[in-house]
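Risk mitigation, structural track. In case the binding assays with N~2~-(3-carboxypropanoyl)-L-arginine fail to produce interpretable data, a predicted complex structure has been prepared as a fallback.
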Amino acid sequence: MKQFEANFDGLVGPTHNYAGLSYGNVASLNNASASSSPKQAAKQGLKKMKALADLGMVQGVLAPQERPDIASLRRLGFSGTDANVLAMAAKQAPAIFQACCSASSMWTANAATVSPSADTSDGKIHFTPANLTNKYHRSLEPQVTGKILQATFANKEYFAHHAHLPDNEHFGDEGAANHTRLCSDYGKTGLEMFVYGRHAFDTSKPAPKKFPARQTLEASQAVARLHGLKDDNVVYVQQNPDLIDQGVFHNDVIAVGNQNVLFYHEQAFYQSSQAIAEIKQKFVGDDLHLICVKTEEVSVQDAIKSYLFNTQIITLANGDMAIIAPTDCKENSAVSTYLTNLVAQNTPIKHVYYHDVKESMRNGGGPACLRLRVAMTNKEHAAVNQSTLINDNQFERLNTWVDNHYRDTLHVKDLCDPQLLIESRTALDELTQLLSLGSVYPFQQ
Ligand SMILES: N=C(N)NCCC[C@H](NC(=O)CCC(=O)O)C(=O)O
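Fallback model:
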């Protein structure tokens, strides 16, 4: 039976804006209050999805969330009509209000952790939505993310869905951004690598000093248990705390893996040589390619600015691997030189394709942030909600939908416009028809 890895990208929502919400994510802080283009952001994302579909990849889409999140604002005591809730919150608590307007669910690498059926004890694909406790605006996502995942992967014979971990920072979980699966083939049992930032229940252990560690070891261990993974097929690696303090807020900013390739910066991991030794020892297969980028080749700052490691590494139909990189990598001389040399070396990576995802990059989200990977068999592929898969028709329909409902520009001051809430809800109601999701949003209950 054929095995492959699908990418499910987050569709950018109608309220995409730069609110400087993510302390520790340098791009988010640097671009706070810049004006955004929700329409361009969504179309950039769709263009990348279509490019991968045209490369023969299985490409899906995960719907955005209802923003402004009126229900969350009411839970905080803002009351009256929806318009009044918007006006009251925007006036009395602008930072909280802006957090309730974020389109951050677009970064579906943070939507969940996914364990393919070749790894799990019950032979199903397991999903655990990330609780994203460290950032308030992201902590609003897991409930609806769970509903969207269950409407996308509905067939209980093939897909198992867990509740997100407890909403407490001891179990801070940022999903697939801190999870990499190494395997000799997508359909064979893989080594699932969980990267965490701190030990929540043992403060004697190393931890970053300046920026928060958003993922805890205990959260990663809980997900591995829930997914029924065997200890021999799991490795826990601590992120280098010094790098978190330089702005590496998720592991997918400094490392990325695909099948038998781990592409990472030499400073990525704490006690790196022990971590790599354990990965080598546990990897099932013989030709593991560890592509370690040295600081003198690409500095940590260049890696963070260009998102060299927030690239997607995909396996094409002919077996070659390709890197999907943001154009920011092309614009950085050290990084573009590195990539040009890389494809000429003797590694499985033979091609680099650049994509403009600048609207997302300005909030610290690159190509890999925008996608959730799901390795699957043909039968599991057939069991997915087919309306969520990108083909020529669905691409056209979604682009037209964006053209009809999205604003060309948006500024933080526009977020309390009652018309924007109406536009967003109208758009999402139509989207749930387009993607055959059913009523997944609070406003539809
Ligand atoms: N690396 C991965 N997998 N995901 C990137 C997430 C970026 C996101 N930015 C934001 O949420 C900024 C929102 C704002 O400031 O408006 C975050 O920090 O959680």
